Amino acid sequence: MQPEISWKANSVVYHLYVRSFKDSNNDGIGDLQGIINSLHYLSKTLGVTAIWLSPIYPSPQVDFGYDIADYKNIDQIFGTRNIFDTLIKKAHEHKIKIMMDFVPNHTSDKHKWFQESRSSKNNPKRDWYIWASPKSNGQPPNNWLSHFGGSAWALDATTGEYYLHLFNEHQPDLNWRNFLVEKEMLNILRFWMNRGIDGFRVDVPYVIYKDPLLEDEPLNSNYMEGKHDPFDMLLHTKTSWQPEFYQLMKKFTEVLQEYKGKFMVTETWTDLPGLIKTYNAAGWKYFQPFNFSLITLPWRADIHKQYIDEYERALGDLYIPCWVLGNHDKHRVASRIGKDQARIAAMFELTLHGISFIYYGEEIGMIDGKISKKKVMDPYEKTSPGLDLSRDPERTPLQWDSSENAGFSNATPWIPINKNYRKSNIATEMKDPHSFFALYQKLIRLRKENPALSEGKYIPLFEPVENVFLFLREKDSQRVLILLNFDDKDKKISLDFKDAKILCSATMKEDNKLIDLNNFSLRGNEGYILQL
Ligand code: NOJ
User: Fold this and answer.
1) Which residues are catalytic?
2) Are 470 and 304 in contact (CB under 8 A)?
3) Beta bridge partner(s), residue 492
4) CATH superfamily of 456-531
5) Model-level pTM?
């Protein structure tokens, strides 16, 4: 086995929803050449060290690429395999690593495996998917639900059996209990690593295994119709987190360890013990389950403090955390907690110990777009409308400048640009030394330049006053204090730190000043990174 080269704990990964990032051929859809043309922006101007690309494989795009028709190719709307090779090469020249999205749970119904599988009960690929006979009354085999609404089973007329789809009916679930499926999928990881990519983000791995007996799931007694996502009507004890999931994570990491310097992050919506169990099962430092707590927990200092202290304690020196404020499935952070607090959140995420993922547009405080009923694109909203489940708002094109179509494309974009783009865009933000963009730029730079922020331990401190978060990062002789006001109200604090130098303030207006934290008034929506 070759020695590992680590992904450093101060890595910053830019999560790029490819179709919304930059369109180079003016068809209204972002593409690979658009990314190549933006590498300078990513590596030099912003300073990120890696990019994660949403799925770029050939796909009917029912779920915008999460329905893959060929795992070893590139969809022509994004480019070609040659262009992808160029992207890998050029990104590496810019010292940017590349992560691909790996979607192991389901394929598109247009994938040739499924086409074969559905053709007859005797086809050798039949068992590559999950088929079951109807109940005696013709109904689906059990009560399992699709994440996007309705039954998880679709009746296939050719053979009169149902196939399982935990997402859209055009996304049939693979049967990982068939070892040929496992073998083929692990080889797909190797295929892309052989072409030079540096890591993967894994889509919903915790649903890969289902109860082989196909037993019903129990009802969720807390479910309220019309208020909750219909998927939450059941407790998903038979379709997620089965014991085999943990063994599979180990297999994934073993494949990555055949190579050098690879990394894997998994989509893992679970609680703290669930995350620790996943880390321990995979047992490899460069495997990390996403920690989504900055998205899911209420935005309060005490709640986050309790969680992070416990998490850091549990990970110890064995594993590195992985933080994220937003993604293509959740409302944007600046819409969830407001623009002022989104600055505090950025400061928080980028000073915590561990790898940070930035969702494209977060660097300018992009907010959710408003998508009219006529323009709905998301299959989730189409099947479960009106419950604020649509993911279209957080997928609007990146706002590059104030020109028509926000500098994203010369054609009408696949999804409407956010109306605020003339004011809120990268070009405008770059001119303002106190902007969101300036803050991100500085935070990323500070992470690289300060050993305490790149490698230092997270040292929990007390909550000095209600809704203020305080912690230390420490490495050798460097000590950096992070003080964050989670409130819009001013706070009186008194800490025994004199002559602390402000490396960065959330408003960017007080950088480089010396302050005495004894008897100090911390303004609302303000935060500091302080050199002690
Ligand atoms: C999670 C992805 O993030 C989401 O966008 C997708 O719809 C589902 N998995 C299904 O692949």
Assistant:
1) 203, 267
2) no
3) 521
4) Golgi alpha-mannosidase II (2.60.40.1180)
5) 0.97
